[in-house]
Amino acid sequence: MNSATGIVAVATEAGVSVSTVSQVLSGKRPVSAATRSRVEAAIEKLNYRPHPGARSLRSQRTESVALIVPDITNPFYPLVAVGIQDILMPQGYLLSVNDVALPSRTVSETLRHVLARRVDGIVLTTYGCTPADLELIAQSGTQVVALGQDIGVSGSDYVDVDEAAGIGSVVEHLLGNGFRRIAFVGGEREDFTSSLRHSGYREALLSAGLGVDDELSVFTSFTRDGGAAGARRLLELDTLPDAIVCANDLIAIGVIDALRARGISIPGTVAVTGYDDIEAAGLITPALTTVDNPAREIGRTSARLLLDRLNGSVDNVTRHVRLSQHLVIRESSTVVPH
Predict the structure, then answer these.
(1) Domain 7-50 - what CATH class?
(2) 48, 146, 188, 228 from 61: Cα distances, Å
(3) Less crowded by CB within 10 Å, the N or C end of the chain?
(4) What is the pTM of this model?
């Protein structure tokens, strides 16, 4: 059905004006529930599908949103993308996923490409972001939702979980099982998320009246290889840790690789925990104790916040949504050390 004639046919079928049909399609102006229902029924009956190009020209929008993440091979981020699509696709938006594979691509380079394509909105992690990157976003006027922290851009929103509390619950669990020499393997030292999770580790030990031994904290990358490298550094210590808290599940899997290569029993000699609860966490042996980080709901929530911005239904005040998480106890941490 031709878009121009089609919208007239929908209006005639529903008994409303063409402008009312346009308002239902765009969602920019309020329409009564009864009228909306008649228009939607007419659209369904006539199988009307507005042409995306024509709609974009009228609205001066591209109906596209960019997601910028540090590592799309990390199973956490595809779930975030799926959550965003859950909300945006029914509204006619196309999501592009952009991997900032530092150091081969910088956030600045990715942002310039994304903004040049006039996306309507951006969802991004702040990994690798510089003040110049944030200024570029601010100057563009593009609607933004950040994952993990407030980026300080007027009119932006952010979604997070309590990273420190999540790691704290892991440490408390280990202490309750009798582990005392607890190490930490994090991502890059300068990374905001890695720093928050390391703070949670330290705070939990101090709250339990234990000292913090700096030689038990190792920083690497949020990858399986990074976890293996971090574990090998801990294995060089005169006294092994009896538990290793990892800043994400990929690191934890790498730690398990390195421990097994040395013939070290898990959790009999060293317990291992992760963070995120990716699918692999429940599939490896031993199954990994971790923190359920609600990736798909993070995506959905960020998309809802972004849609509010795109529809003009909120002012420039920054909104913050904090989602809940919980400890998932599995076999990798449940043996009390001798």
Answers:
(1) mainly alpha
(2) 20, 21, 37, 46
(3) C
(4) 0.80
Q: Give residue 88's pLDDT.
A: 94
Q: Give the per-residue pLDDT at 56.
A: 47
* Residue 229 phi, psi dihedral angles, 5° rounding: -65, -40
Report pLDDT for 50. 66
Token output for 71 = 């590592």
Under CATH, which number does the domain 62-161+295-323 receive? 3.40.50.2300
Q: Where are the alpha helices (DSSP H) in the chain?
A: 3-14, 18-26, 33-46, 52-59, 76-88, 107-116, 131-140, 163-176, 192-207, 224-234, 249-261, 295-310
Fold equal for 62-161+295-323 and 163-293+327-333: yes
Instruction: Return the domain boundaries, the chain.
Output: 7-50, 62-161+295-323, 163-293+327-333
163-293+327-333 fold: Rossmann fold (3.40.50)
What's the pLDDT tens digit per position in 23-36? 777 665 677 888 98
- Contact in structure between 239 and 217 (CB atoms under 8 Å): no
For 288, which DSSP code? P
